[in-house]
Design goal:
The complex is a heterodimer of chains A (about 110) and B (about 350).
Chain A (H helix, E strand, L loop, with lengths): L1 E5 L5 E5 L6 H7 L18 E4 L4 H4 L4 H7 L9 E3 L12 E5 L8
Parallel strand pairs in A: 1-5
Antiparallel strand pairs in A: 1-2, 3-4, 3-5
Chain B lengths: L2 E10 L3 H12 L4 E4 L7 H5 L5 E2 L8 E2 H12 L5 E3 L4 E6 L5 E5 L3 E10 L5 E4 L29 E5 L3 H10 L5 E6 L8 H12 L4 E4 L1 E8 L2 E9 L2 E6 L2 E4 L3 E4 L10 E2 L2 E3 L12 E3 L4 E2 L7 H19 L14 H7 L3
Parallel strand pairs in B: 1-2, 1-8, 2-5, 8-20, 10-11, 10-16, 11-12, 19-21
Antiparallel strand pairs in B: 3-4, 6-7, 7-8, 9-17, 13-14, 14-15, 18-19
Helix pairs in contact in B: 1-3, 1-6, 4-5
The chains are: A alpha+beta (about 110), B alpha/beta (about 350).
């Protein structure tokens, strides 16, 4: 499956995602600009992204715990998600998302 | 008043790898002091995920970050390491005799033969909201913590956040401020229910304004804010404010480590794999903060690195002394040090 990630500089990257991986892990392994501080423990919000509106239904809503973590960043939008909480699957082949400024390594 | 402390080793960072370093150093009769920016031991484990299970610590099928920290504290207790919390090392200077002078932001000076950097992802710093130009107001009218309550008396205060810090300070400051507005992006709070209820009572009594929204812009001059602009569902809103307290939690930054003259690689410190020594002899780096070919950011890697670092540190702390490698299972000398023989 492929995911299309727009980084903070506006550059679009087509990444190969592996079934069952977290989208955060794919983005991190490709060396894009996310901090992913807690490594997927849903404890930091430094893998914050905006899911393209066409993909919001497929990705589903964030959990209450994820919403709590999203409270800790100031650039939340209605389509905000933590990429560590989105699992790669064939249903999400072609997923489009944009990395949030607050996810950047130097933020 | 400044304090001077002389010791064998200063360990910067009291996360799991730093704590285990105290054990390995202790077995070799090396005394150490810890310096950590947090107010308790455990580092990232205690700060980010104290209750989250960890599954890859040898011999612990599952252990939480807090349990791991507590066990390490018990394990190193026989060596009585000393802890200096809630402070940051601002500078390290190599002295003529090869030892080090470290100065903290709490006005302490440490003299040590060896420095071990075990700072994980760096030092925890408050998360800065993404507001243009906020830096010019920091520590003048924008604060990430309340150090002096008097700084807020009779002020127009805006607090942003929905966690315990935001709610606690809303309740504590409400009686002394001129106006207080609590801003949160949603009507749900990750704080103690009692605090949330109390805040809602104050809102009902008109003593606290609650505003759903997000901070967008600041107005002011010479470091003094006068308005906080919010983005809300109903449109933009401007609130008169003389103090802003954003509580978005903590994030890790390399901090002053970057200025210590050590060879770095993308926010990590380059070390060798024999001794885990940095480009400056006598300064070691273990755990997530170091870099070498094949590095895995795992707690167990940091434990291994701590053991090898301690062997190398011994030759610096006690030059010329022969180090006999011993096992805790069979060495009565080591067992005596641990208080079990």
């Amino acid at each position: 499956m492929k995911i299309n990630v727009t980084d903070q500089a506006g550059e679009v990257h087509e990444l190969e995602g592996l079934e069952g991986w977290r989208v955060m892990e794919v983005i991190r392994d490709w060396g894009l600009n996310i901090k992913a501080e807690c490594g997927g423990a849903l404890s930091c919000a430094t893998c914050h992204c905006y899911v393209d509106s066409d993909w919001l239904d497929a990705v589903g809503a964030p959990s209450e715990e994820e919403e709590d973590m999203l409270d800790s960043v100031g650039d939340v939008k209605p389509n905000s998600r933590l990429s560590c909480q989105i699992l790669c699957s064939d249903d999400l082949d072609g997923l489009k998302l944009t990395l949030a400024p607050s996810a950047a390594k130097d933020s | 008043m400044s304090t001077e402390i002389t010791t064998d080793v200063v360990v910067i960072g009291a996360g799991p790898c730093g704590l285990f370093a105290a054990f390995e150093l202790g077995l070799l009769d090396i005394k150490c002091h810890f310096i950590d920016i947090l107010d308790r031991p455990g580092g990232q484990c205690a700060e980010l995920y104290p209750e989250k299970p960890i599954y890859d610590i040898p011999a612990f099928p599952v252990v939480t970050g807090q349990e791991l920290t507590d066990n390490l504290m018990t394990q190193i207790a026989p060596f009585s390491p000393e802890f200096h919390f809630s402070r940051m090392v601002n500078s390290i200077e190599k002295l003529e005799d090869g030892s080090f002078k470290l100065v903290t932001d709490a006005d302490e000076t440490f003299f040590a033969k060896v420095v071990v950097i075990a700072a994980g992802g760096g030092s925890f710093q408050p998360k800065r909201p993404p507001v243009e130009g906020i830096e010019q107001y920091e520590n003048k009218s924008v604060f990430y913590a309340v150090r002096r309550i008097e700084d807020f008396r009779d002020q127009d205060v805006v607090i942003v956040g929905g966690g315990d810090s935001a709610l606690d300070w809303t309740l504590n400051l409400a009686p002394i401020v001129r106006t207080l507005t609590l801003v949160h992006r949603r009507d749900a709070f990750k704080a103690a229910p009692a605090s949330v209820n109390k805040m809602k009572e104050l809102v009902a009594e008109g003593k606290v304004n609650f505003q759903l929204g997000q901070i967008a812009k600041l107005d002011g001059e010479d470091g003094q804010i006068n308005h906080v602009h919010l983005t809300t569902a109903a449109g933009d809103l401007s609130i008169p404010a003389t103090r802003l307290l954003p509580f978005f939690g903590l994030t890790m930054k390399l901090g002053p480590v970057a200025d210590w003259g050590l060879e770095l690689n993308d926010n990590t410190i380059v070390v060798d794999t024999e001794k885990f020594e940095t480009s400056v002899p006598g300064i070691f780096a273990i755990g997530d903060i170091n870099h070498y070919p094949g590095k895995l950011k795992l707690i167990l890697s940091g434990f291994h690195e701590a053991a090898l670092m301690a062997q190398a540190a011994k030759s610096i702390v006690s030059p010329g002394e022969r180090v006999v490698f011993q096992y805790t299972t069979s060495s009565t000398k080591l067992q005596k040090k641990l208080g079990v023989a």
